[in-house]
Structures are given as structure tokens and as C-alpha cells.
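Lab notebook, bench 4. The sequencing result for the construct came back, and we need a structural model before the next group meeting so we can plan mutations. Quick request posted to the team channel:

Model the 3D structure of this chain.
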Amino acid sequence: MAGRKKNLPLVYSCSGCSSAAQMANHVALRLDREGEAEMSCIAGVGGNVPHLVNIARSGRPILALDGCALECTRSSLAERGVRPAAHLLLNEQGVKKRYATDFDREEAERVFEQARAAVRGLRATPATAMTGGTTD
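Done. Here's the predicted structure in C-alpha cell form:
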């Protein structure tokens, strides 16, 4: 599967302590496990780990998942000059940011379907370098 994944879009997600952040991470993991996208490490991108920054800059289309309006995933990519081809903000999908509680599984299923549709749209688009420029 590893060789096959190189043809897939990349997905990066928030993984903070809120329920919205954990939902974003759950959705990204599921996209990876179901072979829809390859999840990579946003902490490594933010930490400027060369190998992980190179993956982000590889020109593969990227879906960025953020749990809230702070947009940590998108900001971490922007710090390295990378712009996601698609960006899904869970708070704009009605997901509430809560602390000390788990995310709602039914809501996560709805968000997963939206994320899967976004990734499939990226798979239909030829890969182009998404470095530099603005981050919308």
C-alpha cells in the first residue's frame, strides 16, 4: 500500500484537545485507513522537520482539516509556504468546539462524507505544486 499511497492526496489535520480537533484527526485517520488519502504529520511540518516539510511541498494535492476558526493546520502549512488545495473548517460545518468531552460519532460521519468528497475531487485533479502564493 505504501507505493500506492504516493498517488493519493495528502491530508493534514488539527489534533488539539477539543472535541472538534479530535474529530478532525479522526476524519483524517479514517481517510488514510480507508485508502482515500495519505495522512501526514502536521506537527512535523510546524516543527520544520525536513522530511515532513518535503512531503508537504511535494506538489501532491492537500486537504487541510481544521476543527475551529484558529486554523492551526492551515497556518502550519502556510508557515512552510504550502497552500492546501482544499480546506475544511469543521466549525463552518456546524461542529461545536467543546473541552473535556468526546466528539459526536454521528456528526463525525457527516463530516467524514464531506471530507471524502473533497479528497475524491482532489484525486480527479492533476497534482500541481501548491507552494508559495497566498493561502486564501
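DSSP finds six helices and four strands in the chain.
Will bring this to the meeting.
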